[in-house]
Amino acid sequence: MFIKILSSLPSAIIKNSSFLLQRPLTTMHSNIITKEFGKFKVQVLPALSDNFMYLLIDNSTKEAAIVDPVAPDVVWDAVRKENVKLTTVLTTHHHWDHAGGNKELINSNTNDQLTVIGGDDRIDGLTVMIDKHRVDFQFGSLNIKCLRTPCHTTGHICYYVNEGQDDVVFTGDTLFLGGCGRFFEGTATQMYEALIKILSQLPDSTAVFCGHEYAIQNLKFGLHVEPSNQYILNKLEDVETKRKLKEPSVPSTIGLEKLINPFMRVENESVQKVTHTVGDPIETMKMLRDLKNNL
Asked: Which of 132, 103, 135, 130 is nearest to 117 (CA)?
């Protein structure tokens, strides 16, 4: 009966109902894993049906930042187990499944006030507004660069950490493994700028931590565009094996995305021919997104 009642409610009410954000799902869509880097580590925290949150830990100061904490209970459990101090919230964009847990996280914090960083005044609890591209700030001993990538939303931010040989970027709903976000508040020109002019220019070794577990459907779309692309075939096999074990597909790398992601390959003639837009990568971006939306 509850399910029937819930399904009859308008989607806007459902998505903005705080009771849906009070507790994480009892069964996570993926296992929690930790990726070690030299000066820091990243813990992958699944949330909702396909979201990812990320706990970024500075190894030297034991400070932690959380990316898109939609499930606060999961976040606090990870903070306690890692014995770190949560000081910072990195919000990629204002959508409820990324920023909807901010208020509860802030209210349940018993330590000093959390610093909530983002690029949109629609973000709950925002304390630091990023209104320019490539703004740097210090987190513990780490430097984080804020990359403005408007399109999915007008205030979308990607967070880039570069420490020596270690590079990671948290891309929210701009860049996915094998795909990109919908152009809800922006244009193909903006997504082209975000993917090709900004993210593609990061070192190829940069680890990419995206906002959702969409890898299999994205890679299948990539094969629809480039059926003979062996890199996509290989990655799809790898991801399918991981998902059977409930292992998350993340992280990817910038270098790999240039080989497997059609939206990162809009300057390649093999992709342009599919959309009949040879010589026009921005139109290719638009047509690709339209094609993906309508499949």
From this structure: 130
Catalytic residue list: 93, 95, 97-98, 152, 173, 212
**Distance separating alpha carbons of residues 44 and 176, to the nearest angstrom:** 15
> What DSSP state is assigned to residue 193?
I
The SS3 call for residue 277 is coil
- The alpha carbon dihedral of 203, 214, 153, 118 has a sign of negative
Residue 284 dihedral angles phi and psi, to the nearest 5°: -60, -45
Tell me the residue type at 143.
N
What phi and psi, each to the nearest 5 degrees, are found at residue 78?
-65, -40
Are 180 and 200 a contacting pair, CB within 8 Å? no
Q: In the structure encoding, which two tokens stand for residue 185, read together?
A: 């508040």
Chain segment 42-58, per-residue pLDDT in tens: 999 999 999 999 999 99
Residue 13 has a pLDDT of 34
Sign for the pseudo-dihedral over CA of 142, 31, 243, 14: negative
